[in-house]
Design brief:
Molybdopterin biosynthesis moea protein, domain 2, 9 strands, two-stranded antiparallel ribbon
Length: 341
Amino acid sequence: MNVIRSEKLRVGMKLGENIYRDDQLVITSGVALTSRHIEMIKRLDIPEVKILEKKKLSFSNNIKYEEKYKEAVDSFKDICYGVTIGSLVLYDEVQECIEPLIQELEANPEMALRLWQMHTADFYTYEHSVKVSMLAVLLSKWLGKPKVYQEEIARVGLLHDIGKCNIPNDILNKPDVLTQEEFSVMKTHSTLGYVLLNSTKNLSKDVVKGVLHHHERYDGRGYPSKLSGENIPEYARIVSVVDIFDAMTSKRVYREKMNPFRVMEIMKNGSQGAIDPYIGTIFLDNLKSSYLGEKVLLSSGHIGTVHEIRTQMPERPVIRVEDNLIDLDKELHIEIKEMIL
């Protein structure tokens, strides 16, 4: 347990005590602080608060999670294979795929942030779907959603691209820019997914609608229905944010993966109009805080830890290497090559 002055609080820190206003509980111990929480603490003139220490993931936990991740990818591959030969998606199969990972996230929620470094030899769509599912659970935690909501959003994340099982592989795996005709075919995957899942017993209609609308844009320029703002189902708005993040941090047939710091900058500056601004802000703010203290390999060959991440330049953090601080915003010839598990 650490005692932190209010002016040094950061989004994502875990509160170690209850906060009261006039004997009324306003912030519960254990919650991950949001910008609103921090503002409230300052307005209450509380000089300092107790903060829970960030738990470091052990190597054994990481290996255990990666094994379960690979098992989930294999399970989802089986589901997709069944779709290609005309089988219905079964609710029990979906649960068997996601439940082990959700259980691991209960113990180590930030393990989902390591998924960008996990890779199997399988087709991108299988891995991407599992990763989006787990990141959606993590984001829903950051949004303060209850467990039943987290379980539902895990299903949306897993199944959001299920319609791609019926898209030709030469389009899915094309290393070049899709033609207009090919892109029109690709865009049908969300509607195909809706059709596939609409008859799945025990799968809620909200999950199916989340799958249908995950490519809508907040400004109304998405597909398939050109919904805008809060007319887009919330499940779809959450999945949209983590879908973008995972797509950019994953290796594709046409480019290498990008590190999360670079992706944070792209999402901060380039996603206006695409995603829900509130959900996007919560995701990026918590993402930055979660990577504080993590080990990174620099292009200079040095290994250090993330010491500070600025709001204006999240992709150029300050790195501590032994007793020295390297400000990547000033040392422009140095960049983060990879994060070290």
